[in-house]
Design goal:
- The protein is mostly helical.
- It has a domain at 33-137.
- Helix content is 36%, strand content 4%.
Length: 269
């Protein structure tokens, strides 16, 4: 039996040496680790708080700018994911208070309703925390929700339909919540109606040009006619010798001889 206990102790020592001491996880203790990320934007709880603080500064006194609203919504998405995984995390109260402070500057129906929701959730769920007490102080004299009216055209045209009124949150007398509609911060200029482009007229097909007739010369002059070959001159016929006169002794014509063929004259004795 003693040897069995020794083996158990040795096995436990080996496990501790290899894997380290076993400690309770953050989920068991109720707190999210600083290196865990939540929501679509993968924000830690510190990143959630920083995003909400930045949005509050960007909003100024009030805003309806979509860039600020989107920044708050991304932080809210991560906050809800964190709240679902660690519902007992004591840091949730701080982030919820920052959420309410950011949304109260968004003068839209959705922004004002969410501001009231987070303020009163803090009062009910975290009444003993610093942020729960601060939320109670902020809403102890009632809460007024501010909403911008619908944007009106800068140059209204007679007979044109009026813009649809902006949605307004519902008042809550039990919680002393009132609603006040503020003038729109700007007017709208409708974009000019584009002039329709007339359809293009189809171009008729080109008529083929007949091929040019070949000319004999570049200047278009008629080609020179061929000159007929010269006619050969007929040979001259010999003139017959005149007939001899009767009684006259015909003197024979001297026969011309070439020097080479002349017969030598015999010498006289």
């Amino acid at each position: 039996m003693r040897h069995l206990w020794i083996l158990i102790v040795l096995a436990a020592a080996i496990v501790i040496a290899v894997f380290g001491p076993v400690t309770p996880t953050s989920a068991a203790s109720g707190s999210a680790p600083a290196d865990e990320y939540f929501g679509r934007m993968k924000l830690s709880y510190l990143g959630i708080n920083n995003s909400l603080k930045d949005a509050t500064v960007m909003a100024g006194d009030h805003t309806d700018f979509s860039g600020v609203i989107q920044k708050i919504q991304f932080a809210e998405d991560a906050f809800l994911d964190w709240q679902r995984k660690y519902p007992q995390d004591p840091q949730l109260a701080r982030s919820m208070f920052l959420m309410a402070r950011a949304y109260v500057k968004v003068w839209t129906a959705d922004g004002q309703q969410k501001a009231a929701f987070y303020y009163f959730t803090l009062r009910a769920k975290y009444p003993t925390t610093y942020f729960g007490k601060q939320a109670k102080a902020d809403t102890s004299k009632g809460m007024t929700l501010h909403v911008f009216a619908a944007i009106q055209p800068c140059d209204p045209i007679l007979g044109e339909p009026t813009p649809t009124p902006a949605p307004v949150p519902t008042e809550d007398p039990k919680r002393n919540i009132k609603v006040q509609v503020e003038p729109a911060p700007r007017c709208s200029t409708p974009s000019p109606t584009p002039t329709p482009t007339p359809p293009a007229t189809p171009t008729p097909p080109a008529t083929p040009t007949p091929a040019a007739t070949a000319t004999s010369t570049a200047t278009g002059a008629p080609a020179a006619t061929a000159t007929p070959a010269a006619t050969a001159t007929p040979a001259t016929t010999a003139t017959p010798a005149p007939a001899a006169t009767p009684g006259a002794t015909t003197t024979p014509a001297a026969t011309a001889t070439s020097p080479a063929s002349a017969t030598p004259t015999p010498a006289r004795t």
